[in-house]
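User: Please fill in residues for this 412-position structure.
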């Protein structure tokens, strides 16, 4: 009995060696790297990605899972992504597999979109049934720099307090370089034009309703959420004038996208005309919410550090229900005074920022969060059902008079 008691005591009091946390990164052979902020702070680590440096806006995400989806999200174009989740890379990277609609099953686009990634502990060894390569191999193959060994808690607190900051992810000799740097601002560019399709793309041509998607950087799972609900989807360039072909479609969708919405003045003008003249459903997500709001007459502002993660609470102002949502944006609508005919639809329960708007008499609405979130949560995916229900209802109403007119002419 006494020996059993002693054994239990040993288990309750682990040795110092057991209490020391081991790291998944095997640092031997890795080149030096550093994240250098425009505000002067520098975080040193080791490179496990491409052997090249890059510039971008340093932002952080609180997502616990889904790094392949986040890194391929076009909304992250121009940004250096900091993961607050300490261990990254442990399930590797899947292959590029397409679903029945020709959409990527595991990625949100056909390449890595971020300028670089910053992690605390990169898992050199990975394990997952879909994995075909490591995170490091993927970054190297696509020429994306990556740094491990960074105190991402301290870095996140810094970005939270001073706001998202321009930065350089320096690799190799650049990491030790102390010369003064010039930090280009990606938000000064039209990043939407950079990621948008150049030609129309078609998915699920057998669908019963035709949806035009204005591509500001659309995620693959958004297209999947439309096609799997029976929609015939046509993806159009960001500045395409939908009003010229409005009779060819039953509904309009405006997608997510990167950078500042102020660079998309052409899209805003087209949407302003569509709101006034097109009596069909319109739905927008993320950048789509900002552009629709601007078309309605609202201004936008830059959030200090944005909302990025899978755990943002969005409160429906009509029902009082609060949903946990996935988000990735650095701008928001100024909704203190709503334009005539418009109302707030959702607000962020954390910071009070706008999370959605709705027209009071027309089937037009948008949300700032991502109801299609891959990596979760999926609590608000019902919004796609709501949109397509409106599309089908209005199509059936407008279709009936056409049938009656045809019958009348046949018996005339």
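Assistant: Residues filled in for all 412 positions:
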């Amino acid at each position: 009995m006494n020996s059993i008691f002693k054994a239990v005591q040993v288990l309750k009091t682990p040795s110092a060696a057991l209490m020391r946390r081991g790291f998944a990164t095997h640092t031997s052979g890795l080149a030096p790297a550093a994240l250098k902020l425009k505000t002067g702070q520098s975080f040193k680590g080791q490179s496990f990605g491409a052997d090249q440096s890059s510039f971008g806006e340093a932002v952080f995400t609180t997502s616990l899972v889904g790094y392949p989806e986040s890194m391929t999200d076009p909304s992250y174009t121009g940004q250096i992504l900091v993961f607050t989740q300490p261990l990254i890379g442990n399930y590797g990277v899947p292959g590029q597999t397409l679903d029945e609609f020709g959409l990527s099953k595991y990625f949100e686009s056909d390449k890595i979109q971020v300028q670089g990634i910053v992690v605390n502990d990169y898992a050199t060894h990975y394990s997952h049934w879909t994995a075909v390569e490591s995170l490091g191999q993927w970054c190297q193959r696509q020429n994306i720099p990556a740094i491990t060994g960074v105190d991402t808690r301290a870095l996140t607190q810094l970005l939270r307090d001073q706001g998202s900051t321009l930065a350089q992810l320096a690799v190799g000799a650049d990491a030790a370089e102390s010369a003064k740097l010039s930090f280009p601002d990606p938000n000064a560019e039209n990043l939407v034009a950079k990621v948008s399709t150049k030609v129309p793309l078609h998915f699920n041509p057998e669908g019963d309703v035709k949806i035009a998607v204005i591509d500001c950087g659309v995620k693959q799972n958004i297209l999947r959420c439309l096609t799997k609900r029976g929609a015939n989807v046509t993806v159009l360039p960001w500045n395409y004038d939908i009003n010229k072909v409005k009779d060819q479609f039953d509904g309009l969708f405006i997608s997510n996208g990167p950078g500042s919405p102020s660079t998309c003045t052409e899209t805003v003008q087209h949407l302003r005309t569509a709101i006034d003249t097109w009596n069909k459903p319109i739905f927008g997500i993320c950048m789509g919410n900002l552009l629709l709001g601007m078309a309605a007459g609202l201004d936008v502002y830059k959030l200090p550090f944005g909302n990025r993660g899978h755990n943002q609470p969005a409160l429906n102002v009509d029902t009082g229900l609060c949903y946990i949502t996935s988000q990735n944006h650095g701008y928001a609508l100024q909704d203190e005074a709503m334009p005539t005919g418009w109302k707030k639809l959702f607000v962020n329960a954390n910071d009070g920022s706008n999370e959605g708007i709705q027209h009071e008499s027309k089937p037009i609405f948008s949300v700032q969060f991502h109801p299609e979130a891959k990596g979760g949560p999926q609590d608000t995916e019902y919004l796609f059902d709501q949109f397509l229900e409106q599309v089908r209802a209005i199509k059936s109403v407008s279709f009936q008079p056409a049938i009656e007119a045809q019958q009348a002419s046949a018996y005339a």
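For context: The chain has eleven helices and 21 strands.
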